[in-house]
């Protein structure tokens, strides 16, 4: 499914088992939340409010995790560029 090269530390990704676990846990938790709301002994408008809250909470969690990942990748890129520039300056003055 996902082939990963473990020789380059910049290319290392999550294992297929971990990715499967994450998606399965996400699917189970969302399904159980929806089923739990369905069987609550309350009026339909309360259930609708809880469904809406679940939907927005799930969407905002996914957006937050994507934004944090993007920020992390950006910072890694900036650090790699800074390190390359530092190495270039040091090699110029050492040689």
Automatic annotation (TrEMBL):
Protein name: YiaAB two helix domain-containing protein
Sequence ranges assigned to domain YiaAB two helix in this UniProt record: 18-70
GO cellular component, one term: plasma membrane
Residue spans crossing the bilayer: 21-40
Superkingdom of source: Bacteria
Coiled-coil residue spans: none
Record carries keyword Secreted: no
Any one GO BP annotation for this protein: DNA damage response
InterPro entries in UniProt: YiaA-like, YiaAB
Provenance organism: Deinococcus radiodurans (strain ATCC 13939 / DSM 20539 / JCM 16871 / CCUG 27074 / LMG 4051 / NBRC 15346 / NCIMB 9279 / VKM B-1422 / R1)
Pfam short name (any one): YiaAB
Entry keywords, A to Z: Membrane, Transmembrane, Transmembrane helix
């Amino acid at each position: 499914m996902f082939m990963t090269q473990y020789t380059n530390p910049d290319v290392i990704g999550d294992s297929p088992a971990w990715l499967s676990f994450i998606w399965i846990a996400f699917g189970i938790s969302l399904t159980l939340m929806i089923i739990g709301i369905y069987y609550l002994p309350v009026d339909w408008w309360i259930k609708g409010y809880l469904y809406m809250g679940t939907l927005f909470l799930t969407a905002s969690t996914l957006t937050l995790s994507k934004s944090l990942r993007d920020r992390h990748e950006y910072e890694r890129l900036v650090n790699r560029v800074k390190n390359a520039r530092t190495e270039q300056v040091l090699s110029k003055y050492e040689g």
